[in-house]
Design goal:
By secondary structure, this protein is α/β, with parallel strands linked by helices. 37% of the residues lie in helices and 15% in strands. It binds pyridoxal-5'-phosphate (PLP).
Amino acid sequence: MQNSIPYGRQNITEEDIQEVVKALRSDFLTQGPKIAEFEVAFASYVGANYAVAVANGTAALHLCCMALNVAPGQKVITTPITFVASANCVKYCGGDVAFADIDPETYLIDIANVEALLNASPNGTFAGIIPVDFAGRAVNLEALRNLANAHGLWIIEDACHAPGGFFTDSKGVPQNCGNGNFADLAIFSFHPVKHIASGEGGMITTNDEALYKRLLTLRTHGITKNASDFQNDLALAIDPTSSLIPHPSTFPGWYMEMQELGYNYRLTDFQAALGLSQLQRANAGIAKRREIAAKYFEAFKGQKGIRGQSGIVAGHAYHLYVIEVENRLGLYNHLREHHIYAQIHYFPVHLMPYYQQQGFAPSDYPLAEKYYAHCISLPMYPTLTEDEQDLVIEKVTAFLHG
Ligand SMILES: Cc1ncc(COP(=O)(O)O)c(C=O)c1O
């Protein structure tokens, strides 16, 4: 029987396994040296100054919203075509989510719609924007930054789909997703279907030192062990029942302070070892994804029944390869009959029952809804073989012309 072909799949090599085994045999299971190594290597990969490894991409989004002080009464704009986490992080902090409809060509949040939303509301209505590099296509953050500056907004780039992706700025310079040149913070996920897998896992990147330092404490309960940051005085830290300070007059080694409410959102050392090992193959993985995309593009270009597709786009990281077809449900079922497990990304967030309870309704974002009605993500991962991709193309074509 033909092997099943999923839409995405992790690739774990013998080297990856050996790196995890080494970490397991070391003295550290959680927060050991692999965390810092992974952070430094990842920051350098995307071209940012700082990186903070966390438990998953959702935790990364939550911590970013906390670090930017999202609070009740604040509104944050994101896209309806994303995984729910891009919106939920605002709700975790008590803020409210607003959506701006997508550009039907790129499937990304349409900056013109963001601008219209900002212009239609009194100044100060919105605190920030969470654009998503959906499917691996990078948002033009230069344009979004200009808009954000004009309205005093911060930007969290949800780059879960796009490590290794880039957009080209107005000077012709490639700007890597997550490099921190335009967004205040960027986040990534290392879920198995993503470019780099660590089981669960996530990363925040930034060029802002103050945000970086705050994120380090927020990911571990808001606790700091850094004596120069301590708020309590030495006498209280040593013995709260006495005001005498013994000699030597330094904070004792055990002392630490929780200065604000944080979480345990730490990554483990053996997950970092896996992520670090996977990172070595990240560029090769993207090169393969681009080859696969080019082959899909050529196969479907001009085909009757294909309403749109991801296409060939410079800097696209191709986490997903999306095509839009008239009879999406029919194609989905037809592919399943042939053990090809295409997937749908995404059911619009504003139509999730939870968000309808917040006041959103069908036809609020017609372009996102139209896109959803026709989109389907075809198998896309570096170990997809030529024969497997040929089979996918054959079955899609047969369905469209059958
Ligand atoms: C766009 C986007 N944002 C956020 C997340 C959340 O990442 P995680 O699953 O690691 O929590 C995902 C992962 O599915 C995602 O695709």
